[in-house]
Amino acid sequence: MKKLLLAIFLLCLLLSCKVEKPRDTINIALSQEMPTLDVHRNSSQVIRYILCGNTLERLIDLDENGRVVCTLAESYTQENGGRTWSFKIKKEVKLHNSRALTAEDVALSLNRWIEYYSAIRNIAGTSRFTYSDDEVSISFDNPVIFFDQIMASSPYAAVILAKESLVQTDEKGFLTSYIGTGPYVFDSYESGQCVTLKKFKEYKGEKKAYIENLKYFFVPDSVVRTLGLESGKYDFINDVMSSDFERLRKNDDLVLSLGDEAGSFVLLFNKRGPLAKNQYIRNAVNTALDLNGVMRSCYGAEGYTMNPSYMEEWQKTWLVDGLEKYHNINDKNKAKEILEENDYSNEVFTILSSNLSNMDKSALFIKSELEKIGMKVEVIIVDWSTMMAYRNDADKYDLCITAMTSVPVPSLKLFYDPEYAGWSDDEYLQELLGHLNSSQTIEEALDIWNTLQLYSFEYLPVIVAGHYNSGYLYRKELKGVIENNGFYFYNAYF
């Protein structure tokens, strides 16, 4: 009888205990969706956060201190003053199709990267990577002293894929296969919904991949993202609105992570546009705008800085003194004079914006500002993917609102690329960029950048309204997220 009672007691005890299965999936909600998964041909930061490091890896990366470290490379060297760069490939690295990574895979991947990244193509000229055994190398006509930093962190990522993936493309030449070397294998992409990555069982690198699945959901509405995280539907969200900071800080179940300047809020002039092709229009707009109001309308009271430099505040090496007088001029009367002196006759100035993360609110604020100086303004507001397509059409807009992540070298700023939307093909600007890219010493590069930064305020390829700070929110039980110029989950766990 005692044994029976003991058995019943133990059974009741077991039934009363809630046994939770270990979490095998991290659910991430992102504010935007990328137009393509082809990282070599897409500068959208979201695709780098999804695939780079997790599925596709570089030869070298930047660590949290901005230093170049080896990933797929065992080591690398430069010779001839930065004209020749050689990279030795790590042995026994496995691709997701279970064969070994070869120097041929690496060279083919990097040459494709050069082909589609015009800023690098302009530097490289006809130079391309060659390979032999376990090494790849490239030789330039001129020194490229920052080439390792460019490879480690360029907006168009220098990731390595299997040669089999490089020949699998759609009718527009975009990749449809993503066989890499990272700890997670690409599993699926549901347009408008999510990307799923699954753990690569044969991965032998230094990353941990504790969790079986990573799911990236596309949730452009900031309210839906935040409520989804608070309810437990998501474990991590990006682009947290500063208006929510005070409330979220009081929730002990959540971690609000606010970082330094992560990139620039950019008003991109279309130099082939209906009106913005005229220098006086760019001058008038730059003179008129309350840039603090532009930033506040998008980011709220917190979440941004008014640093006038094109580079971020923490990039001390590249900061130029005395830029305040060119930035946030906010002089409506002077702007009106510029228009009158150039016989502006009420032509329509068109602003293009996405509805992502309050960018549309900035567009409407800018419209109001320009109407105060007598300009006729129209605003086009579309989703992020449509905006990225529209901004490549020179006839559609005069000013495009966008955000750009930080880069280690000024010449990597996308708006300096003459083939990028906005078309900064000014002869003197490009001459300065060429000199910067071929500098033989850091001192020479800094001197050229000083001239280029000042000339940029004269030519106005863009207005850098300010700089946004990183802002992420996640469940406190989620550990090991890497926040290094983005957010990465290959070492994360519950």
Please describe what this structure looks like.
The longest helix is centred in the last third of the chain and has 18 residues, at 442-459. The protein has three domains: 33-166, Alpha-Beta Complex (Dipeptide-binding Protein, domain 1); 176-260 and 471-475, Periplasmic binding protein-like II (D-Maltodextrin-Binding Protein, domain 2); 263-467, Dipeptide-binding Protein, Domain 3 (Dipeptide-binding Protein, domain 3, Roll). A hairpin with a 3-residue loop joins strand 10 and strand 11 (194-199). With 494 residues, the chain is α+β, with helices and mostly antiparallel strands. Strands 1, 10, 11, 12, 13, 14, 15, 16, 17, 18 and 19 form an eleven-stranded mixed beta sheet that branches. The chain is globular and about 70 Å long. Helix 3 packs across helix 4 and helix 10 (291-299) packs antiparallel against helix 12 (359-371). 30% of the residues lie in helices and 22% in strands. It has helices at 2-16, 45-51, 103-116, 118-124, 147-153, 163-166, 222-231, 245-249, 279-288, 291-299, 332-341, 359-371, 384-390, 427-437, 442-459; strands at residues 25-30, 57-58, 60-62, 68-70, 73-79, 84-89, 130-132, 135-139, 159-160, 184-190, 194-199, 213-218, 236-237, 254-269, 304-305, 348-354, 376-382, 399-405, 462-475. It has 15 helices and 19 strands.
